[in-house]
Write a structure and sequence with these properties.
The chain is an alpha+beta fold and 225 residues long. Helices cover 30% and strands 21% of the residues. It is globular. The chain starts with 7 loop residues before the first strand and ends with a helix.
């Protein structure tokens, strides 16, 4: 039986809480991650001389490789497709994706979708398919940064409503599997969630940031070359 002391696993059945002594929920873990990142970013801003605030703390050199993207639209209007597929938007993304010591394969698959909800509402999502084995959260950071830069450019240049689109780094081993990016205004980098999404379920890292064995196995199934 899976140990609920080491793994935070949330499913539709809601077993956690009624029958077991549970650790923090997915929402609590993600909010904690957001809060920590926000506090750290404010400390860095305060400690940075005003003349240097536009300079990134660390900039990975752009890889000297060709990079293109293949945009996969799902339930998105032609107008919105034009925004995401605009040559300037795509150039922002490809340049950012090359700032990675081990860039993903070209063409990079980028999925942009609109999901209809009840009461004539909906939500937008942008996902980059990551075609590498994932061994740490750190290796996802360059792609997370590229995804955030892409979404922010499209939203700023064409329609501010696009800034509400959720962002994901998806694997190609299991459908609907990947790491969401956590949103908070003012963060200058893409913040990867400590929880892996598999459909409607999530498996989270421990509170100290370590990855339990069950989560490692799920990541290995999700992210395959």
């Amino acid at each position: 039986m899976m140990s609920f002391n080491n793994v935070h696993h949330v499913s539709l059945f809601g077993l956690c809480g009624a029958l077991f002594a549970c650790g923090p929920s997915v929402e609590e873990l993600e909010q904690q991650k957001l809060q920590e990142a926000w506090i750290q970013s404010q400390k860095e801003v305060a400690a940075t001389p005003s003349d240097d605030k536009d300079e990134p703390a660390e900039m990975i050199e752009m890889a000297d490789i060709p990079m293109s993207v293949m945009l996969d639209y799902d339930n998105l209007s032609p107008l919105m497709q034009g925004y995401f597929g605009d040559a300037r938007s795509v150039s922002k993304l490809t340049d950012a994706l090359k700032r990675d010591r081990n860039p993903i394969s070209s063409p990079a698959i980028v999925r942009v979708r609109w999901i209809d909800l009840e009461l004539n509402r909906g939500k937008g999502e942008i996902a980059v398919v990551y075609d590498r084995v994932v061994e740490s959260f750190e290796q996802l950071q360059p792609v997370a940064n590229a995804l955030l830069e892409y979404r922010n450019y499209v939203g700023g240049a064409f329609d501010m409503r696009l800034l509400s689109f959720g962002m994901f780094i998806e694997g190609q081993g299991i459908a609907g599997c990947g790491f969401p990016l956590l949103n908070k205004s003012g963060l200058s980098y893409g913040l990867v969630s400590p929880c892996l999404s598999i459909g409607d379920d999530k498996i989270c890292a421990n509170e100290d940031g370590t990855i339990p064995d069950s989560m490692k196995k799920a990541i290995d199934r999700c992210f395959v070359p």
